[in-house]
Amino acid sequence: MDDERSGDGFAIEHGHGEYSVAELLEQAQANAQALVIATAAFLDEGGQVAGWTAAIGERFERAWGEPRPWDAGEFLDAMLTNLRTLGAEVVAVEFGVDRAEATTVGFPDADLCALFGVDRALVARFNDGPTEIAGPRGLSWAWALVGDETRYTVDRTEPTAVNGPPIADSR
Fold first, then answer.
1. Which phi and psi (to 5°) does residue 139 adopt?
2. SS3 readout for the chain
3. How far apart are CA 135 and CA 70, in angstroms?
4. pLDDT digits (tens, 9 = 90+) for 108-123
5. Do the beta carbons of residue 147 and residue 69 sit within 8 Å?
6. How far apart are CA 133 and CA 61, in angstroms?
7. Among 85, 105, 114, which Cα is nearest to 152's?
8. CA pair distance 164, 155, nearest whole angstrom
């Protein structure tokens, strides 16, 4: 396969068009969001959205290895990386050890939701999945859709020793 280099990386040519890596990334993000939107709409018809988001979290949690205490900022950074692959843009972030907060735009994409006739609030429930990942890591995960923004908060729920296991609560 012959690849031509363009100003922004590799250009991939096939048949009728040439696409840069940036263009392919944008298309992949739109396709991933479209899949989430269509899936949420289908499952909503059967009242299964809550089960779907819990199942996503439970299955993704398996890929995170053995549970260990995480810093709130460390966890939020990982979640933001995943959200950016769906097309979210981070517009504000504060990483802390015990609390971390971020604001994003772009997921769920208002235009795609409107095109598919699906409420953004329904699609945003995809954000419930990380709850299943956060808990075993001594964290709580919360999010809220506020206008065009999604706000995320991660809080440490278990006190930990510096770089160590959870500290036993002596109460």
1. -130, 155
2. CCCEEECCEEEEEECCEEEEHHHHHHHHHHHHHHHHHHHHHHHHHCCCHHHHHHHHHHHHHHCCCCCCCCCHHHHHHHHHHHHHHCCCEEEEEECCCCEEEEEEECCCCHHHHHHHCCCHHHHHHHHHCHHHHHHHHCEEEEEEEECCEEEEEEEECCCECCCCCECCCCC
3. 10
4. 999 999 999 999 999 9
5. no
6. 5
7. 105
8. 18
| Token pair recorded at residue 134 | 């956060």
Closest CA to 107 of 39, 29, 47: 29
- Residue in this structure with the two tokens 């979640």, named with its chain if needed: 79
Cα–Cα distance measured from residue 124 to residue 36, given in angstroms and rounded to the nearest whole number:
9
Provide the whole-model pTM: 0.79
* 120 in Cβ contact with 44 (< 8 Å): no
Q: Which two tokens stand for residue 125?
A: 């429930």
Question: 166 has which bridge partners?
Answer: 160
Q: For 122-138, what is each residue's pLDDT tens digit?
A: 999 999 999 999 999 99
* Residue (of 168, 143, 167) closest to 153 by Cα position: 143
